[in-house]
Write a structure and sequence with these properties.
180 residues; alpha+beta; 7 helices; 4 strands; globular
Length: 180
């Protein structure tokens, strides 16, 4: 079993070697360089505790303006992608109930991530295939500001999908797996 430090290091490696290096998120490099990303490892298998951690991390973002974004990593639960999707739906509902809708946005990443209507072996899935199941909490106001300064932001997902498909599933899997 990996320690919290190992899990965080593997996640950081995935961000730098995949997300930043492949330019899947054109805004990530700045936050990594400025050290404004908070990493939270949640080892619990209990849904209630995982949802509680989500809200605790929202409160952390409320109180710590030096943190731009938070990655909540779930190394011991949500191994099945369908269970993870159920969790994401509950997380989004909870954000709304706790009045965080419009303040924080949760982006989802999973080792078995699969876009709807795409085959499991489609390289495009690797744009969201991480080393562990995780939720990425982003400040919506900052997303909007960044998108205003970025030309054609609506083309980011299509560009990422094309890049991954050009590289191929074998390459993308190898790139992600080297982070473990």
């Amino acid at each position: 079993m990996n320690t919290h430090e190992q899990i965080i290091e593997q996640t950081k490696k995935w961000i730098t070697h995949v997300v930043v290096a492949c330019n899947f998120c054109p805004f990530a490099a700045k936050e990594i360089k400025q050290n404004t990303v908070h990493y939270k490892v949640e080892n619990s298998n209990e849904l209630k505790i995982c949802l509680q951690t989500l809200i605790e991390e929202c409160v952390r973002l409320d109180n710590e303006s030096t943190i731009e974004t938070t990655l909540i990593i779930f190394p011991n639960t949500f191994q099945k992608f369908t269970n993870y999707l159920d969790f994401v739906a509950l997380a989004e509902k909870l954000l709304k109930q706790q009045k965080y809708e419009g303040i924080y946005q949760a982006a989802s990443f999973h080792p078995q991530y699969r876009f709807s209507k795409t085959p499991a072996d489609d390289a495009a899935n690797y744009t969201n295939r991480s080393v562990y199941p995780m939720l990425h909490l982003l400040r919506e106001e900052r997303i909007e500001q960044a998108l205003l300064r970025y030309p054609n932001p609506e083309q980011i997902p299509e560009r990422n999908i094309n890049f991954a498909r050009e590289k191929g599933a074998v390459y993308m899997k190898m790139l992600r797996d080297t982070c473990l």
